[in-house]
Write a structure and sequence with these properties.
Length: 370
C-alpha cells in the first residue's frame, strides 16, 4: 500500500525530498486528448513559489515544471494528453543542507522529526525530507492537471485569518486576492497584516492562518454516500497538507451553535427549472453528495514550527537539548498554503467527476427522464 498516493480514478503519486536533486509526481487516470502544456501548470506553481516577498521563505526556487510523459503533439501543433501516466518533475536548485547540520540528531519541537525516526529508524534531517512543505509543489502541479479536466468549474482560495486577525466579511472581494502578498480578499486587513507579520518575522517567530476555498460550477450529484462522501474526501485531502490541524465544510464548527431552523438550507424552484437553495450552511454538500451550490471549505494551518526562539527538546540518545531552527522559513506557512489548498480541492473534484461519469454517465438524472 503506497502512502505517497492520493485518489481513486484520478491518482497522484509524489516523490522526492526537500534537499534531494528533484521532486516529482505521477498523475494517472487523466483522460486522453486534453490540451496540456507545461505553462498550463506553471501559472499555478508561480502562485506558490517561494521567495516572492519578504513574508515568505527566501529560498530561491524557480519551480520550473517539466512534463516527462503522458503528452504528445496532436498533429495540429498542440500538446495533448495520451491517457497514459503523466510524469512531472521540478529540479531543486537552492538547497542549503548545511543549515540543518546542528539538528541532525535532535528533534525539532512541532516537526515530524521524532515520529519519522520512531516509525522508520531513519529520517532525512535536511529540511525535513518528505515531511517538508517542499513536497506540496507537486500537488500544485497535479492540481493544474486536475483543473484541465474540470471544465466549467472555478476553484478559488483566500487567506481569511492570519494569527488572531480576521478579515471583515463585508469587505470580501475576490479581485483583491491577487493584489497583495497574502491572497487576502480584504484590502484593509492585508495592510494591517503587513505590520503584524513584519513583527512576527523580525522576532524570529511564526503564526498560523485560516484559508477558505470555494468551488463554483460543480453540478449536483458528485460524490457518494456513506464511505465515499465528497466532504470526507475533501477533508482527507486538506488534512494531508503540511501543518493543517483542522478542516470544516460550510459553516463547520459554527453550525453547532445554530438552531435547526437557522441551519436548514430551504429550497424553492428557480426560474430556470432547477432547485434554488435559500442558504448554504452545508457548504454545497449534503449526504456526501454535491448540491449544485458553491462548495465551501476552510482549513487551519498551525504556526510554522521552524523558529529562531530556543525550544526544549531531546536528541536520539534521549539527552535533553535546547535548539533553534536555522534556515529559511515562512513566518506564516498559511500564505503559500492557499494555492496548495486550491490544488487539493481540484484533485478531489476531478476524481469525483471521473467516478461520477463512470457510474452514472452524463449525470442528467433529475428531473426524471426516459
Amino acid at each position: 500500500m503506497s502512502h505517497n498516493t492520493f485518489g481513486h480514478l484520478f491518482r497522484v503519486t509524489t516523490y522526492g525530498e526537500s534537499h534531494g536533486p528533484a521532486i516529482g509526481c505521477i498523475v494517472d487516470g487523466c483522460p486522453p486528448r486534453i490540451p496540456l502544456a507545461a505553462e498550463d501548470l506553471q501559472v499555478w506553481l508561480d502562485k506558490r513559489r517561494p521567495g516572492q516577498s519578504r513574508f515568505t521563505t527566501q529560498r530561491q526556487e524557480p519551480d520550473a515544471v517539466r512534463i516527462l510523459s503522458g503528452v504528445m503533439e496532436d498533429g495540429q501543433g498542440r500538446l495533448v494528453t495520451t491517457g497514459t501516466a503523466i510524469g512531472l518533475q521540478i529540479d531543486n536548485v537552492d538547497q542549503r543542507s548545511k543549515d540543518y547540520g546542528e539538528i541532525k540528531s535532535s528533534y525539532r519541537p512541532g516537526h515530524a522529526d521524532y515520529v519519522y525516526d520512531a516509525k522508520y529508524g531513519i529520517r532525512d534531517y535536511r529540511g525535513g525530507g518528505r515531511s517538508s512543505a517542499r513536497e506540496t509543489a507537486m500537488r500544485v502541479a497535479a492540481g493544474g492537471v486536475a483543473r484541465k479536466i474540470l471544465d466549467g468549474v472555478t476553484i478559488r482560495g483566500a487567506l481569511v485569518q492570519m494569527g488572531p486577525h480576521k478579515i471583515d466579511r463585508q469587505r470580501f472581494d475576490w479581485d483583491e486576492v491577487d493584489r497583495n502578498p497574502f491572497f487576502c480578499p480584504d484590502a484593509e486587513a492585508a495592510k494591517s497584516w503587513e505590520t503584524y507579520l513584519d513583527g512576527v518575522r523580525k522576532a524570529g517567530s511564526s503564526c498560523g492562518a485560516i484559508i477558505e476555498l470555494v468551488a463554483d460550477g460543480v453540478p449536483a450529484g458528485w460524490g457518494a454516500p456513506i464511505y465515499g462522501k465528497l466532504d470526507a474526501e475533501l477533508a482527507s485531502a486538506l488534512m494531508s497538507i503540511n501543518a493543517v490541524k483542522a478542516v470544516e465544510i460550510g459553516d463547520g464548527m459554527a453550525s453547532a451553535a445554530l438552531s435547526g431552523e437557522d441551519n436548514a438550507d430551504e429550497m424553492r424552484m428557480g426560474n430556470d427549472g432547477k432547485p434554488l437553495f435559500l442558504s448554504n450552511h452545508a457548504g454545497g454538500i449534503l449526504g456526501g453528495i454535491s448540491t449544485g451550490q458553491q462548495i465551501v471549505a476552510r482549513f487551519a494551518v498551525k504556526p510554522t514550527s521552524s523558529i529562531l526562539t530556543p525550544r526544549r527538546s531531546i536528541d536520539r540518545t534521549g539527552a535533553e537539548v535546547e535548539l533553534r531552527t536555522k534556515g529559511r522559513h515562512d513566518p506564516c506557512v498559511g500564505i503559500r498554503g492557499v494555492p496548495v489548498g486550491e490544488a487539493m480541492m481540484a484533485i478531489v473534484l476531478a476524481d469525483a467527476f471521473l467516478r461520477h461519469r463512470a457510474q452514472i454517465g452524463d449525470g442528467r438524472i433529475w428531473p426524471f427522464q426516459d
